[in-house]
Predict the structure.
Amino acid sequence: MNYRFGESAFVQPVASAQAPQQQRTTAEYRALDAAHHIHPFSDMGALNRAGSRVIVKAKGVYLWDSDGEKMIDGMAGLWCVNVGYGRRELADAAFRQMQELPFYNTFFKTTHPPVIELSALLAELTPAPFNHFFYCNSGSEGNDTVLRIVHQYWATQGQKLKKFVISRKNGYHGSTIAGATLGGMGYMHEQMPSQVEHIVHIDQPYWFGEGGDMTPEAFGLARAQQLEHEILELGPENVAAFIGEPFQGAGGVIFPPSTYWPEIQRICRKYDVLLIADEVIGGFGRTGEWFAHQHFGFEPDLITMAKGLTSGYVPMGAVGLHDRVAKAIIENGEFNHGLTYSGHPVAAAVAVANLKLLRDEGIVERVKNDTGPYFQSVLRETFAGHPIVGEIAGTGLVAGIQLAEDPKTKKRFANGGDVGTLCRDFCFNGGLVMRATGDRMLLSPPLVITRSEIDEIVSKAKKAIDATALQLGLS
Ligand code: PXG
């Protein structure tokens, strides 16, 4: 049978989407999952023995599993569902676009309205010098793209020797070969016998863990100056770029001291090294600014974006180019890089709808002026003087809670990762999704969260951390 657009076959899926999706029992789902699905970053043997939690539904800031258990999502999915779950506007945008033009490429002198609208909107929402955008499907591809742009940029400047990219230990930049090489996760490097060349790492600005007796300000400066030492060691004529997350996300929501980024920027400018802000987690309102580098007060040359660009409803990543970098790329012949789905029309349409919600509903302003400060102050009040909480890091709607054996002396647990896992399991059983990175507990809820939902998250986090302290005999 032939259907015309707008008729039955195209309309019915929306109605049926509202019917219960669950087709199988939890046990059946688990058995099939164990039989056929390899999860990311998982010990599959252990996971299959324990069984995965099957998430079947979500609305606002809440998730439901296949047993009907309700949880509050303190992680916005995986740091991405900024507008919260279940926004009809995004579903409608995807549905309309799929009917109109589900796919067309942007390679061979073609373009399409969604990618044009998205680019114009990003030019409006990013800081003034950012007016050009290249699209991909993820943050990892975004950072691969960044490397391609960096090398092309220096080639156009007649500085082909500039090849080294400096990154940081315990940074996270994705899981493609380039993303994982840029990242500073030793356990990922160990599984990669071949890595991308010309990438080196300096230490991270993690004051609680590595600052010793220094003040945060002095430590921030010292860690930034490692960049200068590394540049001088390699020779400034050989250094192409420095990349960093404005605050480290997956590495534990590590907030650098206020002295760090201005010094990094000074050094990059002094030695003519491109400065890249990986905004995959920090972008699109997380800190209360549209981009986290605005919170820290520096100006990058390239911005990596993903996650909050579409609130995770569909995959999309992008790289924003500062005018001076864009000019070099545009005026110097062919840039040999692209992905089938660069600027995918459905993803672009969803991104436009998502960004309009963030802008027109004042969601980012609310994080800056209301829910962000509230979240930070409730967390700090709740955990002041707690026997196993060493520091609360964060701003806006992102926080890292440092667990410590003795908060006063900054003494950390010998088995920090086990303590974090123990705490995370208490959270899960208490109806809260909170992520653990080693001995730091991380929160990054949807940006639409209300004050009372913040109260719920913080009180559940407190219960879990209290239970952890009790189990360790430290309460
Ligand atoms: N840059 C940053 C700063 C990220 O946080 C990526 C790049 C890669 O994005 P894709 O879309 O390729 O995954 C990320 C991703 C975690 C966790 O456990 C964090 C990420 C991904 C998966 C897990 O905190 N961040």
